[in-house]
Amino acid sequence: MFADSPLTSINIHKAYLEYPIVKSAVDSNGRLSKQLMSYLLDDTKPQPIKLAIINAIGWNHKNKNSRSYRNQIIKTKNYTSEFGDKYTAFLWNATAEELLFYSYMKALENYWQPLMVFEYLNRAIEKDPKNLNIRLIYELSKSQVLYEINEKGLAQKNINKVLEQFKNNKSRSNLNQNSLLYCYDFFKLGKQ
Q1: What residues does each domain of the chain span?
Q2: How many other C-beta atoms can be found within 10 angstroms of the C-beta atom of residue 72?
């Protein structure tokens, strides 16, 4: 039996609970505090821990966290656009990592309709095509759509391809194998 939501049911943060900042995110009741925001904005902090924070914050907060994150990035980095809107300024100026984090927050907040994140995720992939974390969040978001149209087998197949790439690439910038076990569990994939 499959759970109903790949995005909201996979708890990768549980593999990072030894980090106090992840524990703070778990205890935050879905609120992106100043401490958590500062951590996400710090370019020296590891990407997997930041993804664990976003995962721990969860999904039930009515777009407040993604909007707050995006606006803080735009303000801090002074992103602008000749079109004058925040959407374009962020989409075209944000780093791959910023696009990834925003997309993941937005996908969680809108898990029943995650199509809106693909423009950001595609842009993140263009900027950093070898980043497996981006690929995983892309496929989890896509899996959500596939689950909605009862294509669970295709979702499993797509996720399995990405997980195989993780297995062959042990970079410290990737999510760790323990966190990926939550993906294997959800999709009922056998870990090789």
Answers
A1: 6-187
A2: 16
